[in-house]
Design a protein that fits this description.
InterPro entries: ATPase_NBD (IPR043129), EutA (IPR009377), FtsA/MreB (IPR050696). This protein is of the alpha/beta class. The chain is built from 14 helices and 25 strands. Strands 16-25-24-18-21-22-23-17 form an eight-stranded mixed beta sheet. Strands 1, 2, 3, 4, 7 and 8 form a six-stranded mixed beta sheet that branches.
């Protein structure tokens, strides 16, 4: 049994906007005598768009009209209609995620790009996606080591740490190539990001908007920015600006990092500085930042991996690495897919005990109630390996007790469990409801509090569901 999905990735970054179309192959890897085990066996890039500078109306707003024109043009060039798309992600990243109209733009794009394309943002998710797009996870797995990918864009640097292929940590820093911009004709600085301005003021450097830039003038700033990156991976501890440059969190160095890779627009300069003779080629400090990183301890003290993708790492990750496949033993009593933007109510390990489940779910469902109206929500928990039927009944009764407000609102019950128990759990819930209410119960998907999911139409003769996990978080 084999099936193909067409996936799109759309990335609106601080500096660039781009698209990618990928073909995902889903196959049953089980034998004829066992339960089907559907996995994504192949990810093939079908089309890469041109790379565009992200169009802005001003420093605070995205030009959605021009973004839409770009996307329509690239769909036409690729020969793809939006109704052909099965899955994928729209990623809004870096400083662009903080624009005043970012939320409106991303939701509009989500609707434009296809029934099952989702809006995603947030530095943690971007770190993982770009690291996978760069191929760092695979290198880590194949060589049995811990590696970090730093995706250096225009406004932020996203870090993802992989240990033997598994994502073990993420972080994000406000370090990027377009935090200082200049006019290429005159060489005068036209923009300095607020955090960078504070460093300049603290050090007393004569760098300001209107100043004519040169490499010598900017070198001390570039060294400070690079030292922040060095400290982020444990190569120093003394940079005074490290804490201030953390976007949301740094990585926790619980294990020694032996390898490093780079992606994002600045990565091309890091790997191949000889190709960039003009230090202000892009009207910013990206080329100079790349050169400084190349000369730093990041390059000297760690084994450097050349990434599979650099400037396209995030969009490749979005187009090929955001879709997961549910387990094959699942329950859905009515085909109501696709379901989009479904918030996740995640139970902790303590709350996942049947005795505590009911109260915990009821309490957390209050978070999803606005003006007396409850919204559709997915309840997620870890579950157990090989639970007895009696234990499954206890889970089912506890879930129905806690999800009673959803039943009163006439909403279907949606449960996502990590371990392989969804079919029997879902059918038990359906039986207890006397087959009168809709139940969707999936397994094989790991979720966290604050995430959202989209569930696509059934594939592989209805035995599995494609799921995209995303985080709707917009930077301030």
């Amino acid at each position: 049994m084999k099936e193909e999905l067409l996936s799109v990735g759309i990335d609106l970054g601080t500096s660039t906007t781009q698209l990618i179309f990928s073909r995902l192959t889903v196959e049953n890897m089980a034998t004829s005598y066992t339960v089907p085990r559907m996995v994504i066996t192949r990810k093939e890039i079908q089309y890469k768009s041109d790379i565009y500078f992200t169009p802005l109306l001003d420093q605070t707003r995205i030009d959605f009209g021009k973004v839409r024109e770009i996307i329509e043009r690239e769909y036409e060039k690729a020969g793809i209609q939006k109704d052909e798309i099965d899955t994928g992600a729209v990623i809004i990243t870096g400083e662009t995620a903080g624009k005043e109209n970012a939320r409106e733009v991303i939701h509009a794009l989500s609707g434009f790009a296809g029934d099952f394309v989702v809006a995603t943002a947030g530095p943690d998710l971007e770190s993982v996606i770009s690291g996978k797009g760069a191929g760092t996870d695979l290198y880590s797995k194949e060589h049995h080591l811990t590696a970090v990918n730093i995706d250096i864009g225009g406004g932020t640097s996203n870090l993802a740490v992989f240990c033997r292929g598994d994502t073990v940590d993420t972080g994000c820093l406000d370090i990027g190539g377009r935090l200082v911009k200049l006019d290429r004709e005159t060489g005068r600085i036209t923009y300095i990001a607020p955090k960078i301005q504070k460093i300049i003021e603290s050090e007393g450097w004569e760098i300001s908007v209107g100043t004519i830039a040169d490499e010598a003038l900017l070198k001390p700033l570039l060294v400070q920015m690079t030292e922040v990156l060095e400290q982020s991976v444990g190569l120093r501890r003394d940079n005074p600006y490290y804490e201030k440059m953390i976007t949301n969190q740094g990585i926790h160095l619980s294990q020694e990092i032996s390898c490093i890779s780079f992606s994002g627009g600045v990565a091309d300069v890091v790997y191949h500085p000889e190709k960039f003779t003009d230090p202000f080629l892009f009207g910013d400090i990206g080329v100079l930042l790349g050169r400084t990183i190349r000369e730093s301890a990041l390059f000297r003290n760690l084994q450097v991996i050349e990434s599979a993708e650099t400037i396209r790492a995030t969009v490749v990750g979005a187009g090929s690495h955001t879709t997961e496949i549910s387990g094959s033993t699942i329950t859905y009593t009515k085909e109501v897919f696709p379901i989009k933007n479904l918030p996740v109510l995640k139970l902790s390990e303590e709350e996942s005990e049947p005795a505590a489940m009911g109260d915990a779910i009821r309490k957390k469902l209050e978070w999803f109630t606005v003006e007396g109206s409850i919204q559709q929500t997915a309840v997620a928990f870890t579950g157990e390996d090989n639970p007895s039927f009696l234990r499954v009944q206890e889970y089912a009764e506890a879930l129905l007790d806690g999800m009673e407000p959803l039943l009163r609102a006439g909403l279907p019950l949606i449960v996502v469990v990590e371990n392989d128990m969804a079919k029997v759990l879902g059918q038990t819930m359906y039986h207890l409801l006397e087959w009168k209410r809709e139940v969707i119960c999936l397994d094989g998907i790991h979720l966290a509090e604050g995430e959202y999911i989209d569930i696509g139409k059934p594939i592989a003769e209805g035995c599995v569901l494609p799921v995209v996990v995303k985080t709707l978080v917009f930077s301030k």
